[in-house]
Amino acid sequence: MARKEEAPNMVERFAEFKELKNIDKTTMISVLEESFRNVLAKMFGTDENLDVIMNPDKGDVQIFQNLEVVPDGEVTNPNLQISLTDARADDDPDVEIGEEHTKEIFFADFGRRAILNLRQTLQSKILDLQKEAVYAKFKELEGELVSGEVYQTWSRETLLLDDEKNELLLPKSESIPGDFFRKGETVLAVIANVDNKNNNPKITVSRTNEAFLRRLFEREVPEIVDGLISIRAVARIPGERAKIAVESFDDRIDPVGACVGVKGSRIHGIVRELRNENIDVINYTSNPQLFIQRALSPAKISNIHLDEEEKKAEVFLHPEEVSLAIGKGGLNIKLASMLTGYVIDVYRDTPEEIDEDIYLDEFKDEIDGWVIDALKDMGCITAKSVLKTPRQELIDRADLEEDTVDNVIRILRAEFEDEDAPATPAPAAADTAAETSTEETSAEAASEEETAAEAEEKPEA
Question: Which residues fall in a compositionally biased region of kind Low complexity (predicted)?
Fold first, then answer.
């Protein structure tokens, strides 16, 4: 009886792994059974004729060996066979040759070495199971926000520990310029990558990933979590500046105002977490011309020419607006390109062109308002910007009929031809006056010559 009491105690000792490693009961029982079978297979050569029964409610284990009954003296493998006499002596008096005899065995009978072997096997399996569980857990959390306590800092990376003491690695390249962490400090980051090479999970976190900015906004703006506001695009230059495009699914909600908060209450917390990184929040639109205009804010654009196939945009601005569009160190135009997905080139409108050009709104008496709005939506704000755009491009991008486009071009061209017209007859009038003056001068000269001739002839008479 003493031997039978040792097995439950042994299982209870193994159960401490469940408490320490936070493994669920079902998985723990499965691991225990597999560990027992592995050790028994090494001891008996096979585990095919062994039944291992785990009793989680009682906390014990029962092991049964199924042996073939053979005549006395014909046992060739004691791990698979048993003689008739031994089988009948083992509480099975009615057994016959060829039948199966089930014999209970006690693991504690195999001594200290077998128990240590079982414990080591169990430790190894639970460690592998724990690593697999950590990998599966964090793999599902890729792109999500996580916090960790600084445990150690090296030159190239910082080691963080989460609440469950899992190791999180924050490389220097994934840190915001200016980040400086002290031991014990809590750091926010986003899970960037989870690798499980050689069953050794490696969790890499990032503070420069654009997902980090998204998650910070989700944490500060309840409307995003509720699905009333959507983050459509994000562009970041970590530690410097960022642009984020948001869209509202409720007409009563201003997405930009909701993200910024009253007096900037919501966005200030995000800016502090990003080491005073400037953040521009803009309204998203599916219209690429208007989206580019908003992305280049605070610069005011005169005209935009798009090549949607090549994803290129030519932006024309007044000279004083060019520096605003480019931004300090080229950050504004670079972020606008990242946000919109277009390669943006900036061009200056010359003063002469600005003075001579006319805004389309001045033609509302001759051109329908909806046509002007369609042209403005494609980036053509002035008359000359329309005339510079190829006719077919106006038809396709503004979605206008050919006759409508031809009528617009005719009206706009006529305006500039009318401006040039007065300049043409002026030189002609001057020439006519000059010719008239010359003829009058010649006539007067001829008259004077005739008078002089008559005067000379009179004395001779």
Answer: 422-436
pLDDT of residue 175: 95
Cis peptide, bond prior to residue 422, ω within 30 of zero: no
Residue 32: is it exposed, middle or buried by C-beta count within 10 angstroms (0-12/13-18/19+)?
A: buried
User: Which pLDDT score, from 0 to 100, does residue 149 have?
Assistant: 96
Domain(s) labelled CATH 1.10.150.20 in the chain stretch across: 357-421
Query: Which 3 state secondary structure label does DSSP give 246?
Result: strand
Do residues 243 and 182 make contact, with C-beta atoms less than 8 angstroms apart?
A: no
Give the phi and the psi of residue 257 in degrees, each rounded to 5.
-65, -40
Distance CA 189, CA 191 (A): 7
Q: What is the DSSP string of 189-228?
A: EEEEEEE-GGG--EEEEESSSHHHHHHHHHHH-HHHHTTS
Question: 89 vs 77, 93, 104, 106, 325, CA distance in Å?
Answer: 19, 7, 14, 18, 98
Prediction pTM value: 0.64
For the chain, the helix, strand and coil percentages under 3-state DSSP, each to the nearest 5: 50, 25, 25
Task: Please say whether the beta carbons of 342 and 313 come within 8 A.
Answer: yes
**360-366: which pairs have CB atoms within 8 A and are 24 or more residues apart?**
360/386, 363/411, 363/412, 363/415, 366/411
Looking at residue 279, its pLDDT comes to 95
pLDDT, position 11 = 52
Cα torsion 416, 420, 421, 424 to 10°: value is -160
Read off the pLDDT of residues 347-373 as tens digits, 9 standing for 90 and up: 887 655 545 678 787 888 889 989 888
Strands 145-153 and 186-195 come out as antiparallel
What's the CATH number of domain 357-421, 1.10.10.10, 2.40.110.10, 3.40.5.10, 1.10.150.20? 1.10.150.20
**CATH code 1.20.58 for 2-134:** no
**Low-confidence residues of the chain: pLDDT under 70:** 1-23, 56-59, 350-356, 418-461
DSSP labels, 408-429 = HHHHHHHHHHHHHGGGTHHHHH
**DSSP category for residue 380:** B
**φ, ψ for residue 89, nearest 5 deg:** -75, -20
